[in-house]
UniProtKB/TrEMBL annotation:
It comes from Sulfitobacter dubius. This is Biopolymer transport protein ExbD. The chain crosses the membrane at residues 12-34. It is a single-pass membrane protein; Single-pass type II membrane protein. Belongs to the ExbD/TolR family. InterPro entries: ExbD. Keywords: Cell membrane, Membrane, Protein transport, Transmembrane, Transmembrane helix, Transport. Pfam families: ExbD. The keyword Protein transport applies. It is found in: Cell membrane.
Length: 129
């Protein structure tokens, strides 16, 4: 009697495919985050001593919710919109304090859109790192 040959278990080819896809993912993540180095002779502007000022046509919203425009307190969004020149009412700049709750910021943008602003632009600080 001849013994019955056992069928060899076949290796699953999907494991190798998963490994290749994972390595490609890691490669593209690393390649996408690398940035071009700055020229060695380039000296960037230092802004440590620069006094920060809001753009002249921006609604400044403080952490406590108080709003100012052109150095004057504004009680409401409608009062701010009324103070804007007619040609500046379609695009409004909003300068929120970092500590302003996000919920209040969303409410303000909705109020500005409801008052006639077509675009609401948030003015933020950008850091080079």
């Amino acid at each position: 009697m001849r013994p019955i040959a056992k069928a060899k278990p076949q290796r699953e080819p999907t494991i190798a495919l998963i490994n290749i896809v994972f390595l490609m993912l890691v490669f593209f993540m690393v390649a996408g985050t690398l940035s071009q180095p700055l020229d060695s002779d380039l000296n960037l502007v230092e802004t440590r001593e620069l006094e920060g000022r809001a753009p002249p046509n921006a609604l400044v919203v403080h952490a406590d919710g108080r709003m100012t425009y052109a150095g004057q307190d504004r009680a409401s969004v409608a009062e701010f919109i009324d103070a804007l020149p007619e040609e500046e009412r379609d695009t409004v700049r909003l300068l929120p304090d970092r500590a302003l709750p996000a919920r209040r910021l969303v409410e303000l943008t909705r109020e500005l859109r409801g008052a006639g602003a077509e675009r609401v632009m948030l003015v933020t600080e950008r850091a080079l790192q």
